[in-house]
Design brief:
Layout (H helix, E strand, L loop, with lengths): L9 H5 L7 H21 L1 E2 L6 E2 L1 H12 L1 H16 L14 H5 L4 H19 L6 H31 L1 H8 L4 H26 L1
Antiparallel strand pairs: 1-2
Helix pairs in contact: 2-3, 2-4, 3-4, 3-6, 3-9, 4-6, 6-7, 7-8, 7-9
């Protein structure tokens, strides 16, 4: 028995990346994705040591809309810019860029962005972004990946000094309500866009 895989993800369906301009279109999508991530990082609810932002919504949406390969290129490109000192991460002022920041409390979450984006891209290839129920499940899986890596890194940094309860509260629990809203938003948005695209093409 084989698993059915759809031929296109949302970005490819809306703006086909074929023909002579394929690399130009892909570069534009990557640039737009990195810009969206940087903007989402700056709209944040101040919390320490990890701020609440719209980034997880954008990360998982990029994976779902772009697919595995282009999504990974976009997310890795975002991290590379941040490592080089460009102000794209959540935070402001001195110390909010570069490898030092990436190896701080948010390091596991940044790594989780890449892995979760790739997972979302693969699930979108299989059509999970076309239905509310499957998109909810996909977003749950993506968030589990991000929290799995993020909490592991925070535990490495703070478990001995702060304790497990502190790590769970400041690494996950405080953000769950906000994440639920983002999950529902994506689960409503993607199937709705697919439905509109289908009507426009029919």
């Amino acid at each position: 028995m084989t698993t059915s895989v759809q031929s296109t993800v949302l970005a490819e369906h809306i703006w086909p990346t074929e023909g002579a301009s394929i690399w130009l279109k892909r570069a534009a999508l990557v640039g737009f994705g990195i810009l969206a991530l940087a903007i989402a990082a700056k709209f944040r609810v101040p919390m320490w040591p990890v701020p609440a932002t719209m980034q997880t919504f954008v990360v998982l949406s990029i994976g779902a809309a772009y697919g595995l390969r282009l999504g990974l290129v976009t997310l890795v490109g975002y991290l590379v810019l941040g490592a080089l000192g460009v102000s794209v991460f959540a935070g402001s002022g001195e110390g909010a860029t570069g490898l030092g920041y990436m190896l701080g409390a948010t390091g596991g979450y940044l790594a989780g962005f890449v892995v979760a984006g790739g997972v979302m891209g693969e699930l979108a290839r299989r059509g999970w972004d076309k239905s509310f129920g499957k998109m909810v499940l996909a977003m749950l899986i993506g968030n589990i990946v991000i929290y799995g890596l993020g909490l592991s890194w925070m535990a490495h940094m703070f478990l001995d000094t702060k304790g497990a309860a502190w790590v769970m509260q400041w690494g996950m629990t405080n953000f769950l309500l906000f994440d639920a809203v983002k999950l529902l938003l994506a689960a409503i948005l993607f199937p709705s866009v697919w439905a509109m695209v289908g009507k426009a093409r029919s």
